[in-house]
Amino acid sequence: MRRVLVYLAAAAALPALARADELAEALRMLQQRYESTRTLVAKFSQEVESPTLAGKLTSSGTVSFEKPNRMRWDYAGPDRQTIVSDGETLWIYQPEEKQVLKAPLREAFQATTPVTFLAGIGHVDRDFTPTLESSAGDHWVVRLVPREDRGVGTLVLVVRKRDAAIEEARITDPLGTTTRLALTDERRNVSLGADVFRFTPPPGVDVVRPPAY
Q1: Residue 112, pLDDT above cutoff 50
Q2: Nearest 5°: phi and psi at 212?
Q3: What are φ and ψ of residue 5, in 5° steps?
Q4: Is the pLDDT of residue 14 over 60?
Q5: 3-state SS of the chain: helix, strand, coil percent to 5?
Q6: What secondary structure letter does DSSP report for 122?
Q7: Is pLDDT above 90 for 17?
Q8: How many angstroms separate the CA atoms of 10 and 145, rounded?
Q9: What is each CA distance from 34 to 107, 110, 133, 188, in whole angstroms?
Q10: Residue 66 to residues 120, 125, 157: CA-CA distances in angstroms?
Q11: Buried b / exposed e along 85-100 (16+ C-beta atoms within 10 A)
C-alpha cells in the first residue's frame, strides 16, 4: 500500500513539475529574445477598460524601441498622442490639448514597472514574480507581478512558443483598469534614425513638469 501511495503522489506531482519546466522555458526564451533585440518596430492596437468608464477606449498606432531606453509611441485617430523617450527624458504630447508632459525617464518608469520590460529595460526574473497561466496551443500565457509594490498591478503576456514574440500584453492596475496591447507586423533590429527618439515641443504648446523635476 505504501508503494502505491508513493506512486500516486509522484504521479500527482508530475503536472506541477511539467508546468514549472514550461514556465522556466518560457522565461528563458522570453528574456533571450529581448536581450537579443536591439531595436523593435511594430503596429499596435490598444484597448482600455475601467470601472469608471461606460465603455472601452480603443486606439492604435505605431511603436518603436531602441536600446538603451529609447522609445516612441504614435497614437493615431481623433485622440492623437505621442510618447517619446530619448533615453533620459520622457515626453507625452497631446496636440489637441496643446500640452506636453516632460519628466525624467526613470521616475516615469518607476510608476509603470511593466512598461520597463516591454521597453527592454527590465528583467523578467529580477523584477517580477512569474506564474504560468496557460500553455495550450501555440502560446504561453505568463502572469508577471512586480516584486516591488509600486501601485502598478500585474502584467499578463501572451507569448508565441515558436520564437517568444509577445503578441499581447494585458496590464491591470490596482484600481481595476485593464489595458490590452496587441502587437503586429513586428520588425526586429532594423536601423532607426536618431530623430525618431527626439522631441521638440511645437510653438505655443505648454510644457508641464512634475513638481520634483
Answers
A1: no
A2: -85, -5
A3: -65, -40
A4: no
A5: 25, 40, 30
A6: S
A7: no
A8: 30
A9: 22, 20, 21, 10
A10: 8, 22, 20
A11: bbeeebbbbbeeeeeb
Confidence (pLDDT) at 23: 93
**Strand ranges (DSSP E) for 10-138?**
39-49, 57-66, 70-75, 81-86, 89-94, 99-104, 128-134
Torsion sign (Cα): 107, 180, 50, 152: negative
- The cell numbers describing 182, all together, are 496587441
Q: What is the pLDDT of residues 47-83, one digit of tens each?
A: 999 888 788 889 999 999 898 889 999 999 778 999 9
Q: 156: how many CB neighbours lie within 10 A of its CB?
A: 20
Domain ranges of the chain: 15-199
Looking at residue 6, its pLDDT comes to 44
> Strand order of the sheet with strand 70-75?
128-134, 139-146, 154-160, 166-172, 178-188, 39-49, 57-66, 70-75, 81-86, 89-94, 99-104, 206-208
CATH label, 15-199, candidates 2.50.20.10, 2.60.120.380, 2.40.40.10, 1.10.10.10: 2.50.20.10
Q: Please, are residues 183 and 62 in contact by the beta-carbon 8 Å criterion?
A: no
Report residue 152 as a C-alpha cell. 502598478
